[in-house]
Amino acid sequence: MRLGLALGYWGRGPNPAHLDLAREAERLGYDSVWTAEAWGSDAFTPLTWIAAHTSRIRLGTAVAQMAARTPTATAMHALTLDHLSGGRMLLGLGLSGPQVVEGWYGRPFPKSPLTATREYVDVIRQVLRREAPVELAGRFHGHPYAGDDGTGLGRPLKPITHPLRAGLPVLLGAEGPKNIAQTTRIADGWLPLYWSPFRTDVYQASLDGVPENFVIAPMARAAVCDDVAEGLLPVKAMLGFYIGGMGHAARNFHADLMARMGYADEARHIQRLFAEGRREEAVLAVPDAFADEISLVGPRERIAERLELWRKGPVTDLLVTAPDPGTLRVLAELNA
């Protein structure tokens, strides 16, 4: 099981520790470093900055939001950074949800998310292969554009720049069972939002027939500390925000996933508290048990014991969000 460093997205401003953490991860032998985006900082610019200050570690987006860019624009970002970094790019994509897609990007959330995702990946693959001009008679991502409001003058094009790698890895952040199953067919890897080594059966049906060398790379908060309850507070804060605030009460993929993992009542309770503006209560309502099983928190000996459970399952890459170089070092030593 390889280790990766997940830096996420910025809060109110750039995190001055991110570059140092990325450099330390590379020094410790971590395989990859990942950035993200929500509705603030983008994923590609910080990753490019990290690329310029590292030499070996692979560079991933976990995730770049599909609604933020057309698939050809995303492919341009990926092939450009792949060239600049000497072939280190990993393109992780996510569909996001209606609240973000319509509220932030001002676009309709696709009525057929599976079709929209499949078309998006298809266009990116065509760009990267550069075998012919991009053409797709798609419902969401048709190339050339054929809508009634167009000029009809568009023509198929292929990238002027030759991509460095036709097989640049494409990974998808999928949560629903059908979306995960499709991911195993059209992508090179899957980026689970929550993964519990105690509940791998939650995903078993979707992962049946997974191809050889398919990447499964969940994210997990890691912190070496004496007080487990205190160490879990950042995990609970993240869960409270995602489950309570990252989606509508009637359609929240994160809450639905928590429910499928055995915490349905708790997920709905967190949503209600968050909707009522009781955010601190929503965070505290996140069960310690749930936060604990999807993270690696506590003294070194406890983390070592739990890390073995992650290593025994189908996970190929563990992407850790770690607050300090010491935690990164401990995980590297335990995973050696």
What does it look like?
The protein is built from 13 helices and 11 strands. The chain has helices at 18-27, 44-52, 71-85, 98-103, 113-129, 177-186, 228-231, 233-245, 253-275, 279-284, 288-293, 300-312, 325-335; strands at 2-8, 32-35, 58-61, 64-65, 89-94, 170-173, 189-190, 215-216, 219-224, 296-298, 317-321. Strands 1, 2, 3, 4, 5, 6, 7, 8, 9, 10 and 11 form an 11-stranded parallel β-sheet that branches. Helix 2 packs parallel to helix 3 (71-85). It is globular, with a radius of gyration of 20 Å. The N and C termini lie close together (9 Å).
Describe, in short, the structure shown.
It comes from Streptomyces formicae. This protein is 43% helix and 13% strand.
Keywords:
336 residues; alpha/beta; eleven-stranded parallel β-sheet; 43% helix; Luciferase-like_sf; F420-G6PD/mer
